[in-house]
Automatic annotation (TrEMBL):
Pathway: Nucleotide-sugar biosynthesis; UDP-alpha-D-xylose biosynthesis; UDP-alpha-D-xylose from UDP-alpha-D-glucuronate: step 1/1. This is UDP-glucuronate decarboxylase. It is found in: Golgi apparatus, Golgi stack membrane. It is an enzyme of class 4 (lyase). Residues 32-312 form the NAD(P)-binding domain. Keywords: Decarboxylase, Golgi apparatus, Lyase, Membrane, NAD, Transmembrane, Transmembrane helix. One of its GO terms (biological process) is D-xylose metabolic process. GO terms for cellular component: Golgi cisterna membrane. It is a single-pass type II membrane protein. GO terms for molecular function: NAD+ binding; UDP-glucuronate decarboxylase activity. The keyword RNA-binding does not apply. Belongs to the NAD(P)-dependent epimerase/dehydratase family. UDP-glucuronic acid decarboxylase subfamily. Residues 272-295 are annotated as: Disordered.
């Protein structure tokens, strides 16, 4: 293979990456890009709890130090402020690549992390998205479906960025024999979710707590499937440790219209909460629901937390962050 400026680092590489989940083994060295974010910080908690050494690489674009602060002082935890658009030199066994701004830099960051994985022989996991299916013509969506994405729409940068990231991941797998894993994540919610990034669950919960009307876009009959974050993290870890490349849908097949979601939020937080209709954005997918047969069969995984159980767990965290009783980043 070709000589790169980084090759002198290769000597330090070990290969604990192939030990199956559940076996006693030496702790792994794991990078989590985007580890100060919503999903990443929960993943970091599980990896640290399992005995691994974790390096979080994050530029705090949407993530927060508060999400990982409880690990400060632990010698198995390290936090690096770094933009993955810039090359990165590290020696690790596994790379969970979650860092992802909804912009073209998504692709460059993924390329760098694949280059890193190739140089050090680490296993690489990409967190892709159900958005690769676009506004799907197949329902529910199986991994074999190629999707229906508008390349020039307002949401395209994210969708196409992730599609390109999947392509690069498979090319590094086939061309450079990098061990890769691809997860297609469906809508996920839980504690530490961004308060103000406009996602429907965080909007409704924050609105109900603040006694503001719940903003339903369009007629509210569009559907989504909402997965609790602990289920997702379990799926990501099983995927990383298992033998299958994927892609795998990781999502909760329970399907809700936005009006049904609003009702669950009313029941959980405030039965008096009003609903206010707003015009919907262009290209909003009408339906989305994962077919998770493949993950069930090959990873032995399925979600355990339904919306009625998961939502209250998120609400207490949002309450603390909105009304500020000085506790951050609940669990
Ligand atoms: P998040 O915004 O909370 O986390 C992303 C993290 O990446 C943040 O901490 C952010 O600061 C960091 N980051 C962004 N750009 C970076 C860069 N250039 N360099 C270094 N760090 C950078 O989002 P999340 O919900 O935790 O999502 C994690 C991953 O899962 C993302 O790849 C996302 O596309 C994917 N995903 C999430 C969902 C969901 O519903 N939450 C659904 C599908 C896919
Ligand atoms: N890269 C990195 N860390 C490494 C190795 C590579 O960030 O340890 C980056 C490198 O800067 C390049 C990208 O990953 O931009 C792809 O690397 P690769 O070696 O696959 O491509 P090449 O350098 O041969 O074009
Ligand atoms: N949505 C809504 N009210 C909001 C925010 C979003 O009705 O305050 C709708 C949005 O139009 C979409 C669905 O909720 O149909 C899910 O939106 P989100 O941005 O959470 O996820 P995505 O569209 O990426 O699946």
């Amino acid at each position: 293979s070709k000589t790169t400026p980084y090759q002198h680092h290769t000597a330090a590489v070990h290969s604990f990456g192939k030990v199956p989940l559940g076996l006693k083994r030496k702790g792994l060295r794991i990078v989590v890009t985007g580890g100060a974010g919503f999903v990443g910080s929960h993943l970091v908690d599980r990896l640290i709890e399992r005995g691994d050494s974790v390096i979080v690489v994050d530029n705090f674009f949407t993530g927060r130090k508060e999400n990982v602060m409880h690990h400060f002082g632990n010698p198995r935890f390290e936090l690096i402020r770094h933009d993955v658009v810039e090359p990165l030199l590290l020696e690790v066994d596994q790379i969970y690549h979650l860092a992802c701004p909804a912009s073209p830099t998504n692709v460059v960051g993924t390329l760098n992390m694949l280059g890193l994985a190739k140089r050090i022989g680490a296993r690489f996991l990409l967190t892709s998205t159900s958005e690769v299916y676009g506004d799907p013509l197949q329902h529910p969506q199986k991994e074999t479906y190629w999707g229906n994405v508008n390349p020039i729409g307002v949401r395209s940068c994210y969708d196409e960025g992730k599609r390109t990231a999947e392509t690069l991941t498979m090319d590094y797998h086939r061309g450079a024999e990098v061990e890769v894993r691809i997860a297609r994540i469906f809508n996920t919610y839980g504690p530490r979710m961004c308060l103000d990034d406009g996602r429907v669950v965080s909007n409704f919960v924050a609105q109900a707590l603040r006694k503001e009307p719940l903003t339903v876009y369009g007629d509210g009959k569009q559907t989504r499937s909402f997965q609790y974050v602990s289920d997702l993290v379990e799926g990501l870890m099983r995927l990383m440790e298992g033998e299958h490349v994927g892609p795998f849908n990781l999502g909760n097949p329970g399907e809700f219209t936005m009006l049904e979601l609003a009702k669950v939020v009313q029941e959980t937080i405030d039965p008096e909460a009003k609903i206010e209709y707003r015009p919907n954005t262009e290209d909003d997918p009408h339906k989305r629901k994962p077919d998770i047969t493949k993950a069930k069969e090959q990873l032995g995984w399925e979600p355990k937390v339904d919306l009625h159980t998961g939502l209250p767990l998120m609400v207490s965290d949002f309450r603390q962050r909105i009304f500020g009783d000085h506790k951050e980043g609940g669990t």
